[in-house]
Write a structure and sequence with these properties.
The chain is an alpha/beta fold. It has 9 helices and 7 strands. Strand 2, helix 2 and strand 3 form a beta-alpha-beta unit.
Length: 246
């Protein structure tokens, strides 16, 4: 039980990669707060966590709204007394070629994917600073490192997360807070299943390992970054992409 008596917040934790992360952290002893825009699904995932023997709290939250992120941090401390781990996983896509991309498609992706990371990190950092310990793990993307046609908004948001991660690592390392990013590649989720088969085939051609990754493979890296095993690692981007980006 590597995370016994630890408390973790997972944003976008109701499904997909976030749900896999929440389950694995719980299996390793952490109590879990599931924060998601989908309150009903968040409640279902929280019940799954409780079935694993850990305490869990579901909070419906729009991470793009600062006051809701603040309430998320406060509600977690009120319920569990501390915050040890924040996994900034919440994210959306609004894909389209740049010339056809609407302003609202740009704004919504930046607001949730990037501003949401700022909001939630801001909401928990003071609690971690008082503890002189904490782990912030930001879910970036291979697209933030290499770009992708039709994803100018998504790529910009994920590249921004990487810069944000490195800056926070520098600012809070002396306070015992580790800040790292995980950059998944082509992962088998509801989001990627909706892609046209031709697009999937093109992606797979560029992956040396010849397959998509799984949410559990991303979760394993998040678990490592959440434990004391990674205590001397900060400001890093850990790639989980089967060799897609080297």
């Amino acid at each position: 039980m590597k995370l016994k008596e630890k408390v973790a917040i997972v944003t976008g934790g109701a499904q997909g990669i976030g749900r896999a992360i929440a389950h694995l952290l719980a299996k390793n002893g952490a109590d879990i707060v599931i924060a998601d825009i989908n309150g009903k699904q968040a409640q279902t995932t929280a019940q799954e966590i409780e079935a694993l023997g850990q305490r869990s709290l579901a909070i419906q939250a729009d991470v793009s709204r600062f006051e809701e992120a603040e309430d998320l941090g406060k509600s977690t401390v009120d319920a569990f007394g501390r915050i040890d781990i924040l996994v900034n996983n919440a994210g959306i896509t609004r894909d389209g070629l740049f010339l056809k991309m609407k302003e609202e498609e740009w704004d919504s992706v930046i607001a949730i994917n990037l501003k949401g990371v700022f909001n939630c990190s801001k909401a928990v950092i003071r609690y971690m600073s008082k503890q002189k310990a904490g782990k912030i793990i930001n879910i970036a993307s291979v697209v933030g490192q290499m770009g992708n046609i039709g994803q100018a908004n998504y790529a910009a948001s994920k590249a921004g997360i990487i810069g944000f991660t490195k800056t926070l690592a520098r600012e809070f390392g002396s306070r015992g807070i580790n800040v790292n990013a995980v950059a998944p590649g082509f992962i088998d989720t509801e989001m990627t299943r909706s892609l046209p088969e031709k697009a999937k085939e093109e992606f797979l051609k560029n992956i040396p390992m010849g397959r998509m990754g799984t949410p559990d493979e991303v979760a394993e890296v998040v678990l490592f970054l959440s434990t004391d095993s990674s205590r001397y690692i900060t400001g890093q981007v850990i790639n989980v992409n089967g060799g897609l980006y080297m």
